[in-house]
Amino acid sequence: xxxxxxxxxxxxxxxxxxxxxxxxxxxxxxxxxxxxxxxxxxxxxxxxxxxxxxxxxxxxxxxxxxxxxxxxxxxxxxxxxxxxxxxxxxxxxxxxxxxxxxxxxxxxxxxxxxxxxxxxxxxxxxxxxxxxxxxxxxxxxxxxxxxxxxxxxxxxxxxxxxxxxxxxxxxxxxxxxxxxxxxxxxxxxxxxxxxxxxxxxxxxxxxxxxxxxxxxxxxxxxxxxxxxxxxxxxxxxxxxxxxxxxxxxxxxxxxxxxxxxxxxxxxxxxxxxxxxxxxxxxxxxxxxxxxxxxxxxxxxxxxxxxxxxxxxxxxxxxxxxxxxxxxxxxxxxxxxxxxxxxxxxxxxxxxxxxxxxxxxxxxxxxxxxxxxxxxxxxxxxxxxxxxxxxxxxxxxxxxxxxxxxxxxxxxxxxxxxxxxxxxxxxxxxxxxxxxxxxxxxxxxx
Length: 445
Known about the structure:
This protein has five helices and 13 strands. By secondary structure, the chain is of the alpha+beta class. Among the domains are: about 180 residues, Porin; about 120 residues, CATH 3.30.1330.60. The longest helix is centred in the last third of the chain and has 21 residues.
């Protein structure tokens, strides 16, 4: 009856513990249920090996390989043909010799043993008249079936020299069950070892999941939902250009690292994803598009001083400077002399103007400025008007010859810019003039 009662006590204890691992500091508790074999020792003892059950134990790991616990066993013994009932209750200290799937250990303890012929429950499990204090020592081994269960085998020598007792050997075989570590996500990895304690994961990844199955745990995977190689930290490279998709501005089109993973179809240094004209080479400053060039002279309108007239790069988009016209203006021929108080052109002046007209026809985009002057004879107001008439006389002849009036500007300086003395007849003659001033700028539209 005692054996049945003890075994019934063990069943609810086993149902309590659901989280199990090898008994360590992270999983400190272990419970075991098994059967025992008792063999009595001593003089005048003739004992056979007797089988009994259950043998129950509960222990807690302390650290450094040591555990403490309690063991209760119910069994049978035999001496000289007489069957005896057996009970033991002990406190035990255990030391793990090593770690692994096969875990040997040493143990020692102190407790009570009862070996009796009759069954007398009125005095409890261990009545003083039939119980003996016992010192024990032994060896055992756990064979772990998995992280949850182990087959346990142990043998111990138990010394109990009091009256009505015997020294004896106790052999136990059973199943141990380890528990005690928290496992919030129920993934079989205790929280103390679980890098991802709130998410069910895999043991090989310290409790972290691998959602995309690429062999890289989610906590180290930049793309946990998309499979990718380790070289890209678990991210894919959809276009195969060697740039992981999260870093690739064009993940579906192969490109270069310089273009952030995008192609540069027109080779202008602007990736297609930013190029407003991806099929035509342009300027990065203009979003990859070529600058407008209305006159097609190779100088963009923004830099072209003459955007509507074909020119050269050397002249900032304008036609090259008319060298022969400039040479003429800088020569001694560039002086038109007039009689006193007159703005009438001489035959010599007309011949020179005809040469200027020919040059202006050769350079249709050139404009000139004609300056009129006077000597100091007469009032300054009179001389101002006279100088303006002299400049106008040159323009009128050029316009009559076919030059557009917009290309010839005039200005009169009166007597303010003499080139010779006004107190001599020769000096005053030189000052009565019109010219395209040497310092004047030729304007090219």
